[in-house]
Amino acid sequence: MRIVHLSDIHVWRYAFNPLHLLNKRAFGMAELVLRRARKFRLERLLAVVERVQGLDADHILITGDLTTTALPEEFRMARVALDGLLVDRGRVTVVPGNHDRYTAGSVRHHQFERWFGEFAQSTTYPWLRPLGAETAILGLDATRSHLSATGRLPAEQLARAGEMLADGARRPRRLIVACHYPVAAPPVYAQELAHKRMKNAAELRVLLAEVGPHLFCSGHVHAAWAYVPEALPNQLSLNAGAPLLRDPTGLRPPGFLEITLHNQDVSVVHHAWLGTEWDARPIYQDPSFFPAAGAFLAQG
Ligand SMILES: [Fe+2]
Ligand SMILES: [Fe+2]
């Protein structure tokens, strides 16, 4: 099974009435869009969509921040631009990012659910979405309408997730957790994550330490990685990075991940845009990451 993991597309749009700029919040939003416009190259989106389409993956997982300020117009643009990837809703899963809940109004009017809700298993989190007989995605939502970029996983969600994964009949052999907020980051990104972390990530880490081998697919920090956190040796932490990011330093090439699952084996390729061409870089491989099918049945 091959899964494309995309995140943090950050469609932006200048859609401000100048009079609204007298309002402090609207002014903040306008500033944010201007900053994002310098940072994210929308003109690259079609090339990204074509690259993903060319891979013909079994499933596409998008871990949030499709928009910048959660305006209906940004959601509409994101939906139209990604149209080529959204043809078969059975093969696409989308969870929200903090920017998709940026304003209280967008939460109140369920903007994310309106435009991308059909690619989630349920409107209430957590949910477990099976991908075939042995693999499933656990969807979590730690976003909130908040001026800061920090998140918090509601206590009920944490408790429900624990119940779902403790249920041997429901716990898949290959578990993939999809959450916009990482619960760990490689040392080079740790400081950046600390500023905009999920406030109660430690509670989720306690739960995940007990659930056995799992992939944790996230975004939020705009850098691609695949690594096993020291504190969570059962987790392969995956971040897709931001596919439209301008990368003047060459240290964070924009792109997405292609994850291949075969029996116990997990391998991850980062499709990185180098400015003039794509580079498919293998960044992780473990031939025995997940339990063997027989061993898993014996445990269950
Ligand atoms: Fe983001
Ligand atoms: Fe984010």
How is the topology of this model organized?
Elements lengths: L1 E5 L17 H16 L5 H11 L3 E4 L9 H10 L10 E3 L9 H5 L2 H6 L10 E5 L3 E5 L15 H12 L7 E5 L8 H9 L5 H8 L5 E5 L5 E4 L7 E6 L14 E8 L2 E9 L4 E9 L6 H7 L1
| Overall tally of domains | 1
Number of H- or I-type helical stretches: 9
Helix content: 25-40%
Quick one: biggest sheet?
Answer: 6 strands, mixed
CATH superfamily: Metallo-dependent phosphatases
Low-confidence stretches: none
Look up the CATH topology: Purple Acid Phosphatase, chain A, domain 2
Helix-strand makeup class = alpha/beta
Please trace the helix and strand order, writing H or E for each element: EHHEHEHHEEHEHHEEEEEEH
The rounded Rg comes to: 18 Å
The CATH C-level name is Alpha Beta
Main β-sheet, spatial strand arrangement: 3-2-1-10-11-12
Looking at the overall shape, the CATH architecture is 4-Layer Sandwich
What oligomeric state best describes the polypeptide chains here? single chain
Description:
- The protein is an alpha/beta fold and 300 residues long.
- It has one domain: Metallo-dependent phosphatases (Purple Acid Phosphatase, chain A, domain 2), CATH 3.60.21.10.
- The chain has 9 helices and 12 strands.
- The strands form 2 sheets. It has a 6-stranded mixed beta sheet with strand order 3-2-1-10-11-12, covered by helices on one side. A 6-stranded mixed beta sheet has the order 4-5-6-7-9-8, with no helix packed on it.
- The radius of gyration is 18 Å and the shape is globular.
- Bound molecules: fe (ii) ion (2 copies).
- One fe (ii) ion is lined by residues 8, 10, 65, 97, 99, 219-220, 222.
- The site of one fe (ii) ion has 8 residues, from loops.
